[in-house]
Amino acid sequence: MQLTMIDENKYAETMQNTVLPALEQCRDEGWFDPSAAERAAGLEPLSGLMDTGGRSGQLHYLCYDAGKFDAIREEGATATFRGAIVISHGFTEFAEKYDELVWYFLLAGYSVCILEHRGHGKSARDVENPCMVWIDNWRRYVADLAAFAETIGQQYAAGMPLNLFCHSMGGGIGAAVLEQYPTLFDKAVLSAPMIAPATGMPLNVARVLVGTLCGLGFSKKRVFGQTDFTPEFSMKGNEGASEARERWYFKLRCENPEYQTYCAAFEWVRQALKLNRAVLKPSACAEVETPILLFQSGHDIWVLNKPQNKFIQLVKDGGGEANLVRFPESRHEIFSMPNSTYKPYLDKILSFYDDPMIASASY
């Protein structure tokens, strides 16, 4: 189906006056206890040092009901329920950053569920610096997301397809979920996934360096060169993206202290590199059964493209269905680009989710 994109010249006005009021009417907010799933994965649950929502160790989520949304009768809504989409967000992100994408998914007939990963948004945190992201074991992210999808996600899918949308760090987590839980999702979109992070040096060198620093007690220290959040807007590093969208995200960060995650702890980097190794094991890729559509950004400074190519090839070699679409002029966040890029990107996503034959098509 074809959707009308938000006019970038009226972006903030449209988001404030149209999108947010509609989302408010169909949104459910909740807290997910991941302890049982983490124990089942061999991980001891963490209680959290900082719980911005006031719930020890629990993870915050937002869900949007397509049925309630259709009752609002927004212009352009399909009024045909197609299932649910679980969103796995990126590093330092938060659920409300995806309001625009949620809006489009709802118009297309999908309920949407977004879990804020540990250390992000209102979910439990384990370091005192509110700007820093730390995780002790990448498998915790995977267990949390899978358990959320198996319960809350399936509830919102109501017997219809349950799909996955991932971005960046969330894409690395999502790839691992697809390998370890091959029948959980019907289809999966990986948008600029963090199959491997860009570290500024060869990955093997980064592994040794970061491992050494963590061993010396730097596990919960901020990565050198990174800073805490400061309320000074800049398009540096996002040249070519939609300034209207970038300003909107920045406004959300400024207004919500829990959205001001901005830097990595050394242990987070070490775990990202461990995730990279695990996800690219041929035996793991051979377990994937969910059809995958991976979007790659040509001007990506945050994740590496070659490991994405390798992942797709390994999934294919293992008998899975996986295709790659490259946006050569796009920055890392394709959904933050101008409408000229965002629209074809969105159209491909919805075609992939909607068409029962699209999984075997060639892109």
TrEMBL record:
Pfam families: Hydrolase_4. Residues 82-335 form the Serine aminopeptidase S33 domain. GO terms for molecular function: hydrolase activity. Keywords: Hydrolase. The keyword Hydrolase applies. It comes from the Bacteria. PANTHER family: PHOSPHOLIPASE-RELATED. This is Alpha/beta fold hydrolase.
